[in-house]
Amino acid sequence: MSARWHLSLIGMGMGSPAHLTRQGEQALRRLDLLLLPDKGEDKAELAAARLRLLQAVRPDFDTDAGGDLRVARYAVPPRDGSDAADTPRYLDGVRRWHDALARAWAQALRDHLPHGGRAGALIWGDPALFDSSMRIAQRVARELPLEWEAVPGISALQALTAAHGVPLNELASPVLITTGRRLRQHGCPPDVPALAVMLDGGTAFETLPDPHAWRIWWGAYLGLPQQTLDSGPLAQTGPRIARARAALRQAHGWILDIYLLKRHGADDC
Fold this sequence. Notes:
Elements (H helix, E strand, L loop, with lengths): L4 E7 L10 H9 L2 E6 L5 H14 L12 E6 L12 H25 L4 E7 L9 H11 L2 E6 L4 H9 L11 E4 H7 L7 E5 L15 E7 L7 E6 H19 L4 E7 L6
Parallel strand pairs: 1-4, 1-5, 2-3, 2-4, 6-7
Antiparallel strand pairs: 7-10, 8-9, 8-10
Helix pairs in contact: 3-4
InterPro entries: 4pyrrol_Mease, 4pyrrol_Methylase_sf, 4pyrrole_Mease_sub1, 4pyrrole_Mease_sub2, CobF
Keywords: Cobalamin biosynthesis, Methyltransferase, S-adenosyl-L-methionine, Transferase
Protein name: CobF: precorrin-6A synthase (Deacetylating)
């Protein structure tokens, strides 16, 4: 009988066990293999955070021995991110990156579960929101006899708005969810009342032409012991956030943060 695999893409929130759903806990307990990305020494803490979360759900898991659960570390291939986010060249580069990741996942399944079984990957936030794990799983399923599922987790947006006690959208109004790269390159459309910015490698809010028009709610390491929050008028709060962000990255070696922007005068502000 040929090998068959099942893959669970498990939303892990911001790395806190409290951000796992009950469904996520159950999926982790069933795993035979955890796919663990290796992004190099400077990002080693990200892999360690996944292992700590795993141990919180499966206390008998030994990071060295593993027991019934094995860990497959795979090297994350580099991605060319030099082009603007909406250009064909950028999108082609991302697709090639996804192809390379799919090959790494498929090889890890063959090497570490040669007879098939249940594998999983812990996904920051939720697999459906600004994450490509489902696209990668679809590629793997074209190469191997694979069934896969997405297990929801607490998204960074949920954790941010809950931590600040602020609703995501204004009354009867939309919110635009975008990336720091796109905000930096294209700015904010004039008719957008609220803007949630994810995957910002820097402080793209500093590129807004009129900081006095906005209020910001920012959070880093949401749900973790080092959680840091700040909010207020962007013109005054933005520089303080930029300094805090740089200090936190220096202290911890990595940072995961997100922010919400709303135009002044909104009812919910």
